[in-house]
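Section 5.1 Outputs to date
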Amino acid sequence: MKTFCAIVLTLGLLASLGLAQPSITQISNAASASLSVPSTTAGVWQTLPNGNIAQGSFFSIYGTGLAADSATCGALVSGSPCIWPPSYPLPTALNGTQVSVTVSGTTVQAYVEFAAQFNNLSPPLAQVNAVLPSNTPVGTGTLTLTYSSQSTTVPITVVASSFGTFAFNAAGSGPGIIMNSKYSAFTPFHTATPGETVILWGTGLGPADPSTEQSAPPAVINLCGSGKTCPVTV
């Protein structure tokens, strides 16, 4: 009986410290409501349109036990332990959370941008935001998340592009974040006019140059100028 009580107390302590086995319930493009969600068949994930994760894209992982409790994060601003400071090179570990992706025998470390467990929600929820390196091979593979020496592995499909538009509600639905050339957002009361330049914010358009991916971006990004062609239609 004493041994049983000791085991129960130890498990309770581990859970309270956030050391329980991580569990992932879904992975998605960080800007899209189209999710990759687990099916009723164990080990098989059903992918909705645009649910695959693109090379170089910003993506989100949801579940429990994936990161430190948000109460330890402080204000969710630059420099808090749950979100990276805006410095380079980009980190592959944040407050004890790491994410790796293996496809066709090649393993890459994702750049972790945000990681927190929200125990104040019912039920509790953890969220990790990361950037998938552009040199990740395309195809089916596995994603492994490790927090405090505890790991979990789930299937993932990596594609060349799978675009999602960022939305004002930060939930991947409703009006998208679309602005004019002066970075003023369009609304039903501030509309675009024919011939006007518009800026659509999203992620998953395709890989970047891996040699510069960990460096600070240039002041002006001109990917499609000077005779270059972007295979994109809007």
